[in-house]
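Budget justification, computational time. The allocation requested in the original proposal was used primarily to generate structure tokens for proteins on the priority list. As evidence of use, we reproduce two of the resulting records. The first is shown immediately below.
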Amino acid sequence: MASVPSLAATVHQRVSDALSAALPEAASADPLLRRSDRADFQANGMLALAKRLKGNPRELATKVVEHIPVAATSADPDSVIADIEVSGPGFLNITVADSAITATLAARAADERLGVPHAPDAGTTVIDYAQPNVAKEMHVGHLRSAVIGDAVVRILEFSGEKVVRRHHIGDWGTQFGMLIQYLIEHPHELDHKDQASSGEEAMSNLNRLYKAARSLFDADEEFKERSRRRVVDLQAGDEETIALWRKFVDESKLYFSSVFDKLDMEIRDPDVVGESGYNDMLAETCRLLEESGVAVRSEGALCVFFDDVKGPEGKPVPLIVQKSDGGFGYAATDLSAIRDRVQNLQADTLLYVVDARQSLHFKMVFETARRIGWLNEKTHALQLAFGTVLGKDGKPFKTREGETVRLVDLLDEAIDRAAAVVREKSEKLGLSEEEIAERGAQVGIGAVKYADLSTSASRDYKFDLDQMVSLHGDTSVYLQYAYARIKSILRRAGEGQTPVAHPELPLTPAERAMGLHLDQFAEVVREVAKGYEPHKLAAYLYQLASLFTTFYDQCPVLTAEGGPSQAANRLFLCELTARTLHQGMDLLGIRTPERL
């Protein structure tokens, strides 16, 4: 189905046509149409136009109004604008016809995508997100990259973009020499009694082994030396060493999978391309940078310098691509990843969902890639930098003992809190324990995701579970409850009452407000996809749920005072609201239970 023009787009076109008719010399002028509290829309462009033409803006606005057709009645099916007035120095206050609102919504409802078009300029985006470290437990610091990245993937794919996911896990480095050597000397440490090992068991095994290896490494100089030699074997591709390294990676993936499953996120194995995936490219990356003159040798290390990056004493701080001992740093890996993503994956956009504290590193990496030509006008890279998760006290989130909070513990607590809220409400619904557990997971994980996504990514936010699982305020539970309430209305209507749009009926203020907001969905999705800003979608959905609450309080649906036609029209508004909430929440990666 062709995209459905929004009321804003239609009104914009009507005012533009009137401008051209009234003043041919202003044919290309922008009416500067905005949503307004005084009317449905306000056109502010007459002031700038009058200044350009050296005329009176109010007189110009009056001329334009004469060329805009206005409906004889609010229910006139052939007109969009019900009323228009010149206000102040030359603003146009525009009220759209009730019939136009309902008819536009009916067109949206007829489309399975709710009238959201595919982006005309869609390309290929490689998005780097959810980057845990092998042989290390995931903690609260891993939450935001995963949640924000997953939402952006969903939004971009829905908009028509080809998205290639990349999980750049930390699976290489000197620590693996210590771990592999310990495993060689204690060969059964990662054996499973049962092949169907859980993710928790995998992490327990890895934690136990890591602590034992670290303790021995710190206490035994001979073991420390053997571990260092094992690093050389790993980097040289020694068969036995690589096989044991692979065992650590596989064990960690088992654990990662269990955490991402709990987060209700899909992480596909082919998308997991860690630091090791670029090993074969590192030497060539360094050679190309040095031969091109982008990188230079300084005290034996291969470096890239920047005029605007200086240390505390004013000395230039370089990006070190290769260390003086020949080892490769993170920069070599990240630059090799850019080469791969541009040249092999044919990316137009490289998006990195990474902690804001790494912003300087990525600024230098991106600039280096631009200097050598791997990034250019056609292909660009940007970091979607995110802030820190804070505790209720506004400080970095820690346990009472001052340790970093395990991510799985945080998620389990959210699910337990949510299940308690669901159980409290379950008596009326007659939910079984199994259903309570399922809804508890959907509500708890949704609460964690929404708290993150409803905050601008660049800002820190406080992790407050009491607030997150509240039925009141800007929470996912409030949105989920609004959705479940609508589904309950539709179930009670049954087959006897069918949702049908009736453009000939006048709308109440609550119906108008909800209808106008529903019509903005496609524009919001487009803006969110363009700016990688899930928090704007969360804000839109919260406002929609709030408008539905007002509608529900003021407008009886099944017992509508206007009879069967009005009941059918209100059921139609309910159904479209539910579909919009469901689609919007799905783009954020949040479930919408039908009974809550």
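The second record produced under the same allocation is shown here.
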Amino acid sequence: MRLKHLIFAALAAMLAWAAPAAAQSRTELTIGMTQYPATLHPLGESMLAKSYVNYMAMRPISGPDLEWTTQCFLCTELPTLQNGRAAVTTRADGTRGISVRFTLPAEAKWADGRPLTTEDVVFTWEVGRHPQSGVAAPDIFRRIERIEVHDAQNFTLHFNVVSYDYNSLNNDFMVLPAHVERARFEQDPSTYKDRTAYLTEPTNPGLWNGPYRLAQVSPGSHLVYERNPHWWGRRPHYERITVRIIENTAALEANLLSGSIDYISAELGVTVDQAIAFGRRHGANYDVEFKPGLIYEHINVNLDNPILRDRRVRQALLYGIDRETLVRQLFEGRQPVAHSFVNPLDRAAVNADIPRYNYDPNRARQLLEEAGYTVIRDGIRQNAAGERLSFEFGTTAGNRTREQVQQVLQSQWRRIGVEVRIKNDPARTFFGETTRRRLFTLGMWAWTSTPESVTSAFQLLHSSQIPTEANNWSGNNRTGFRNADIDRLIDQIRQELDPARRNQIWGEIQRIYLTELPVLPLYFRAEPAILPRSIDGIRISGHGFTSTLWVEEWRPRQ
């Protein structure tokens, strides 16, 4: 009898513990994702993991919504040429510019209760335009030649060029809190990124202005967000959201099934093949969806490498990849082959003829022969000087899909006489150092874009955006691509207000891009979402604004 009493007592204790946990799950949420952000600074490294967590605690001024239409997030009315809040102007030198007037919500505050005002907007511009601040995307700040402040809520941006996306500030102009950051920046702009409060004091409530504020941080492990008491929008349901970093995607799935996490980030979670298999096994308890979108998986080529500088070598590498078989076998065709950097879903997609690189190993071998790699020793090509076609190939360690793709490509390239040596880094190192300082030879990662984004094209392809030590490694043209025609066309398309003419220019840009191949296109990603039936309101955008931008709509299913 004593044993029975002990067993009963143990069960009672377990149930007493489980009941509060079940109740707690109605007010708290734990999310699992695979990457920890290299920085939390809103203007720092362009990294999906950073956007995912920051959007719970910050809002962009404007950008695309779930229907891919530009709208206000931190403004009261979207400026347009039609409503008079935007106007084409003539500058002092006779060139055209554009002025755009925004109004901040009067009730907008930082999470420490300090009003969010035009002072913060102007300070953000001062940081972004400083040549030594090291921001990831300095272009927009340099295009704004001045900010006219009307009062605490109203300001006009005066751009030095006309741009068709004049009212979409996206995540490149995320407002910084002047009252927290100004002293740190003015002390020494060149070292500001190492002293910012987003690094040294990330739980300072004055850094955040969204529905949540960052309350706890364990670098590389987890981040905890709590409701912002000064948030002026719709009150979020969950009191606390914990984001746990689980880099191994198999472990991520196991944690979901065990109840250690409630939800896996669609943007940075399981792989497509995992989601397919998961749906077969657990479809009765979870909804598995695949959201096609503007995420472009590709291989970046460091064009400072003397071998890869030869366009024929780059073209041969792409001809040597059987991408159709790759996406069919790994993803059951749910992630289509990318024949350009512009997704066919994007309004910037063109129907004009563009170069295509269907699998053709014989053409690949011919190009390598033409490039001088005629000698084959131990299966690897080399030229007359003894230079072997051998490269390091890196990506984010622990990402099962990318590691599988690496293995496939390593095998396929060896068939044409090219050797690649796989060397992967954790995501924080890969994006924070390896790619930022251009220390890679071949690197596989993704570009996340918004619809018809000339800003993305500028950042990734324009020669002025190459990171160097002189500009404190600012810019996202990490291949080092330099092409005068691309520079000219990107500068031209930005100022073209006629959509039909823009479409023609997009075609020209893509033709040059696919001839020169500064990167090797792989496929467009579909975001695999494993949605627990206990949560409502999670919606995936398919573009650069992650689902967390609408986190206040998440709530338990009734």
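A brief technical remark on that second record: The two ends are 43 Å apart (CA to CA).
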